[in-house]
Write a structure and sequence with these properties.
- The chain has about 160 residues and is an alpha+beta fold.
- The chain has helices at about 40-50, 55-60, 75-85, 110-120, 140; strands at about 1-15, 20, 25, 30, 90-100, 125-130, 145-155.
- The protein has one domain: 60s Ribosomal Protein L30, Chain: A (2-Layer Sandwich).
- The protein has 5 helices and 7 strands.
- The strands form 2 sheets. The chain has a 5-stranded mixed β-sheet with strand order 4-1-7-5-6. Strands 2-3 form a two-stranded antiparallel sheet.
């Protein structure tokens, strides 16, 4: 068994769609990044990479590469799952905490779980998603950005 941890954050900006956990969430701002800037998926990929000792999301999918510009992070997650399976690893579980002052995330969690588990070809019971605010503190509380933290357990 191997454990990995991932963390990602992106700034909120006007003129972009907000994508979290592969789900479009109606909001007046979105996350800025080279891909769709989905902090949930990016944190999961980093946790999986850490557990598998294969670097990080930037190692697997370099952010300056044209092929990853505006790409759905679910595509990157699916590729990560394929790589893990090819190396003989299986995902025991993934646990994610999403940190956002707004919008309200809870109504979208079931669909996020479904999309994440489908992309990784695992049972949705192996994916846990939670959301929290920072009670108005820090860059998240000021609604300047959103962050996600993830832990993953792999069996090799």
């Amino acid at each position: 068994m191997r454990v990995g941890m991932g963390y990602d954050t992106h700034p909120l900006v006007e003129g972009r769609k907000l994508i979290l956990g592969g789900v479009h969430i109606p909001y007046d701002k979105g996350l800025l990044g080279h891909s769709d800037a989905d902090v949930v998926i990016h944190a999961i990929i980093d946790a999986l990479c850490g557990a598998a000792n294969i670097g990080d999301i930037g190692t697997l999918f370099p952010p300056g590469e044209k092929e990853y510009e505006n790409i759905s992070s679910l595509v990157l997650l699916s590729g990560t799952g394929d790589l893990l399976r090819s190396q003989g690893s299986s995902i025991v579980n993934i646990d994610v905490t999403i940190m956002a002052q707004h919008p309200r995330i809870a109504p979208f969690i079931p669909e996020m779980k479904q999309r994440i588990s489908q992309s990784l070809e695992i049972d949705s019971k192996r994916v846990t998603l939670k959301a929290t605010t920072t009670n108005g503190l820090g860059f998240i509380g000021r609604e300047e950005g959103i962050a996600a933290q993830s832990v993953a357990l792999l069996q090799t």
